[in-house]
Design goal:
Layout (H helix, E strand, L loop, with lengths): L1 E7 L5 E7 H4 E3 L2 E5 L13 E6 L5 E5 L4 E5 L5 E5 L1 E2 L5 E2 L2 E6 L5 E5 L4 E5 L5 E5 L9 E7 L2 E6 L11 E13 L4 E15 L5 E3 L6 E6 L2 E6 L4 E6 L4 E8 L7 H13 L4 H13 L9 E6 L6 E5 L5 E6 L9 E5 L2 E6 L3 E7 L5 E7 L3
Parallel strand pairs: 3-27, 9-10
Antiparallel strand pairs: 1-2, 1-23, 4-30, 5-6, 6-7, 7-8, 11-12, 12-13, 13-14, 15-16, 16-17, 17-18, 18-19, 20-21, 21-22, 22-23, 24-25, 25-26, 26-27, 28-29, 29-30
Helix pairs in contact: 2-3
């Protein structure tokens, strides 16, 4: 099988690269594994909401179950934790997400307390604040600092008049300055498909239309998973490069749907939320076609742009959309490993195991 990556450059030149999937996309060798027995032998990670490389090369893992942030050396050795359960400064009730900004600070969102805690480059707590009222638990893609963020706004802003059906809500990539309350749209996307149950509750439809986006600094990538086009935007300028991944669309099967719904339910940490999503998805019908691209990633160090091709097998394939001579053009990972962060030579992945436990894995690219 051949994978074609076609880049339309800003100067209008056309570059077509054909990459044999098996020869260029290699399974990354395991360099180390961040296991929770480095914290306490009898405990494990319980609801990882983020894993990231800090500017000095150390690793930070956000653990919702432990309501803590765990630090590791660049070799994966545990070096301490901050945070605990509670409502006070530097305490958490329910970690929602964690991200490290370009200035070295780290933001942690508590979805139950509805506040963001800010940590400095040494992972020392500095302050907390409440985000604007319009923030509806959307995805934070990147941040320059605690007040300047790039967001994917794709959550429903209204309830549809009819329940028991799927509704596609508009989505935008936006730059937000929470100090000045300014929100600027960078790119409008086709939107994300949500299913609203006939009784109560809703959830984004697995395998359905999905607005995808990734960002690092002034580099933003956006796409709709059922389309073949991935738009690469550099800074505040208009479209700088347009990159395409081409291939045949596949029809969705019941096996695809069963796996996708199971994976979506297992992503949730709270048992009551898992039960709600399970009940909602029992009503929903699978889409007719599979997504073409189901994840995007921008390496914040080298600005490499990666897209993950949807896979039915046990391995998922990542393709670099802006190939550079002498650099890896692709790699494969086990399907149950979610990429959390990437540097020039290493990668952090989250593996959810069948028994419900989680591992954070450290990989290195082969030379």
């Amino acid at each position: 099988m051949w994978m074609h990556v076609v880049a339309v450059l800003a100067c209008c030149a056309l570059l077509s690269v054909g990459v044999p999937a098996q020869s260029s996309a290699q399974l990354l060798p395991l360099a180390g594994q961040l296991r929770a027995d480095a914290l306490k032998p009898e405990e494990g990670f319980s609801g990882v909401v983020g894993a990231t490389f800090l500017p000095d090369g150390t690793i930070l893992v956000g653990d919702a179950g432990r309501r803590s942030l765990h630090r590791f050396t660049s070799l994966g050795q545990y070096s301490g934790s901050v945070g605990r359960g509670g409502k006070g400064p530097g305490e958490f009730e329910e970690l929602g997400w964690m991200i490290t900004c370009a200035d070295g600070s780290t933001l942690v969102f508590d979805s139950r307390l509805y506040r963001i805690s800010v940590y400095d480059r040494t992972v020392a707590f500095t302050r907390s604040f409440v985000p604007p009222a319009w923030y509806a638990f959307d995805s934070v893609l990147s941040c320059d600092n605690a007040d300047q963020l790039v967001l994917l706004l794709d959550q429903p802003r209204y309830k549809p008049t009819e329940r028991g059906r799927s509704t596609t809500f508009p989505a935008v990539v936006a730059r937000a300055n929470w100090t000045s309350s300014r929100l600027d749209t960078v790119r409008a996307l086709p939107g994300t498909e949500f299913y609203f149950a006939t009784t109560m509750g809703y959830v984004e439809l697995p395998l359905g239309k999905r607005a995808l986006a990734a960002s690092a600094g002034r580099v933003i990538v956006s796409s709709a998973s059922n389309d073949t086009a991935v738009v690469f935007i550099n800074g505040d300028s208009r479209v700088a490069d347009t990159l395409f991944v081409r291939g045949a669309r596949l029809g969705a099967t019941l096996a695809d749907w069963d796996r996708a719904t199971r994976d979506r339910i297992e992503m949730e940490h709270a048992s009551d939320t898992r039960a709600l999503i399970s009940r909602v998805l029992k009503e929903a019908a699978p889409p007719k076609f599979l997504p073409f691209v189901d994840a995007l990633l921008v390496d914040k160090y080298s600005r490499a742009v990666w897209a993950r091709r949807f896979s039915r097998g046990q391995l998922s394939e990542w393709v670099r959309l802006n190939p550079v001579k002498g650099k890896p053009t692709g790699f494969v990972l086990p399907i149950n490993v979610q990429v959390m962060d990437m540097s020039r030579t290493t990668l952090l992945g989250l593996r959810r195991n069948p028994d419900g436990t989680e591992d954070v894995l450290l990989y290195k690219f082969q030379r």
